[in-house]
Structures are given as structure tokens and as C-alpha cells.
Amino acid sequence: DQQVKQNSPSLSVQEGRISILNCDYTNSMFDYFLWYKKYPAEGPTFLISISSIKDKNEDGRFTVFLNKSAKHLSLHIVPSQPGDSAVYFCAASGMGGGADGLTFGKGTHLIIQP
Amino acid sequence: KAGVTQTPRYLIKTRGQQVTLSCSPISGHRSVSWYQQTPGQGLQFLFEYFSETQRNKGNFPGRFSGRQFSNSRSEMNVSTLELGDSALYLCASSLAGQAGANVLTFGAGSRLTVL
Questions:
Q1: Is the pLDDT of residue B97 over 60?
Q2: Read out DSSP for B21-81?
Q3: Which of A67, A102, B28, B59: disulfide with A91, CB 3.0–4.6 Å?
Q4: What is the CB-side half-sphere exposure of residue B80 using CA atoms within 13 A?
Q5: Are residues A43 and B33, on separate chains, in Cβ contact within 8 Å?
Q6: What torsion do the CA atoms of A50, B5, B25, A89 make, to the nearest 10 degrees?
Q7: Which one of A43, A49, A93 has the shortest CB-CB distance to B108?
Q8: Is the pLDDT of residue B99 over 90?
Q9: pLDDT (0 to 100) of residue B100
Q10: If you measure CA to CA, which chain B residue comes closest to A91?
Q11: Do B104 and A46 touch (CB under 8 A)?
Q12: Using the beta-carbon criterion (under 8 Å), do B55 and A104 form an inter-chain contact?
């Protein structure tokens, strides 16, 4: 039973346009959400996070939106650049004491077309 | 500041063998977590160690085990290897181990192929 779902295995976007990556979750105990980016032959690297007390967090070209009622979050990248081509993982956790381990989605492969 | 180091990067084993993977966390990080990445399942949480104690465990069989040493370095072991164990095994470290409050820094992974 997938608790974090990324329903688009891949997404192709033209350079300079907006990339929107989506993520849905089912576990209402999740209250902290992260996006990781992964290049081939490298480990995932942290991109941006958001806690459930917020509905938006921005960091440069990257913005994450959280809709708790819909259990949905999205990552916006504006403008998209060729170096953004990578696999993006959405992850979620609860903030109870101790690490519950992050629950990851299966990833979305973003391809930025020149 | 050195990142998370995993060894070996690549290895090939046959069914029934066992394997040990090693992870050196970022200096000062006391929590080490392990994840398995496969094409079909994405990243799945194996276990997390903090101060030499396993604090949390994912839904994996007992063939998967790990430990953490006093210097925070960690090893994971898989016994009686099966073809389905072929995967990228990722280690991640963080300061205090609360996934929400502390971002995980991942190593490049150990790619295990079981023949």
C-alpha cells in the first residue's frame, strides 16, 4: 500500500517553462514533507521541505505547495533549466520523537528539453 | 566537509551468499539510516541507527540486519541473498535522526547485483 504516490513516472518540459511535479499521500499522520533530487550514479540530494503548518515554501526557483485537505503537494520549478533534468522524489514523515524513516514516492523523471 | 561515504560502490554476488555494506556518515552526524532502491518500489526504508542502537526498522525480513559502531559508522548485512535483493542500497546520515527536523544526507549508494 503506497502511502506516498507520484503518479507521473516522467515529465518533459521545455527549458525556461515551469515544471510542476505532483505528489499525493494517504497517511494523515504525515506532517513534514521533503523533495529530493537524484542524478544517475549519485545519491538523492535534498531540495526543499515544508511542514504541515505551512502551505507554501519557496527557495529560489523552487516552490513547494501543500494542500493538507487534499493530501497533495506539488513542486514548482521556474524557470526550468537543463541541469534540472533528474529524478525527483517526494518524501514524507511524522515528527514524533525518533526517526520514523522517510516514506518515499517512486519518483518522477523530469526531462528538460532545450 | 566530507559527505556520506559508502563502500563498496558495486558488487556482484550469487544467490545464497551474504554481503556486508559499509557507511561512514558525515562527521558529527549520529544517525544513520539505510534505504533500498529498486525500479519497481522506489526507495524503501530499511532501518535507522542512533548511538549504536537500532531505533526503527522498516518492513524487511530478518535476513537484513545492521549495526552501528561507536564512531557512528554503520554496516548492513544481507544473508542468504535472493535475486530480488538486487538493488541500490543507500545510506543517509543526519544530526539527530528525526526525519522531519533534520534533513538526510545520502551517500552515492552500493549497487548490489545478485546472480
A1: no
A2: EEEEPPTT--EEEEEEEETTTEEEEEEEEETTEEEEE-S--TTEEEEE-TTS-EEEEE-S-
A3: A102
A4: 4
A5: no
A6: 20
A7: A43
A8: no
A9: 52
A10: B43
A11: yes
A12: no
Strand order in the sheet with B19-24: B5-7, B19-24, B74-78, B64-68
- Residue ranges of chain A with pLDDT lower than 50? 96-99
- The residue ranking higher by pLDDT, B98 or A111, is A111
Give me the sign of the Cα torsion angle B113, A1, A49, A112: positive
- Please give the angle made by the CA atoms of A40, A44 and A47, to the nearest 5 degrees: 120
Contact A95, A32 (CB under 8 A): yes
Of B44, B55, B103, nearest to A46 by CB-CB distance is B103
Instruction: Give the residue carrying C-alpha cell 559502531.
Output: B69
Whether chain A has a CB inside 8 Å of the CB on B31: the answer is yes
Whether a cis peptide bond, with omega within 30° of 0, leads into A79 is: yes
Average pLDDT taken over every residue of chain B? 91
Preceding amide of B8 cis, omega within 30: yes
pLDDT of residue B71: 93
Phi/psi of residue B113, nearest 5 degrees = -115, 125
Query: Could you say which of A45, A101, A105 has the minimum Cβ distance to residue B99?
Result: A101
For residue A29, which amino acid is it?
M
